[in-house]
Specification:
Length: about 110
């Protein structure tokens, strides 16, 4: 009957969506490895974070690198995330680092 066809179609779409999201997760892990990302080298940064890793992030954003993750760094982080279609949290997480490292690698290759 028609309801079976609809149910099977919905199930097919659901399985497709699940497969796509699994591939997306896999690809971030692969991309992270390829970009040289490790959680210890590139820790999560957010407003209030301080130190050399913040300086590195600020250099990647091409803003004043004072090692203090304040309002300016958060706003530039949000802009970076929006420009790169990432979730705009203002927090530098794994995904944000990986995209930044990929862009840096592209720039260095010319």
């Amino acid at each position: 009957s028609a309801s079976w066809v609809v149910a099977l179609d919905m199930l097919g779409r659901f399985l497709e969506a699940v497969t796509e999201s699994e591939e997306a997760k896999q690809s971030l892990a692969d991309r992270a490895e390829a970009a040289g990302y490790t959680a210890s080298k590139y820790p999560t940064l957010k407003k209030g974070s301080k130190g050399k890793k913040v300086e590195l992030w600020q250099q990647l954003l091409s803003i004043k690198d004072n090692g203090d993750f304040g309002n300016e760094t958060m706003l530039y982080t949000i802009k970076f995330q929006r420009d790169n279609k990432l979730e705009d949290t203002g927090v530098v997480n794994k995904e944000t680092w990986v995209v930044a490292l990929e862009l840096l690698a592209k720039m260095l290759k010319g």
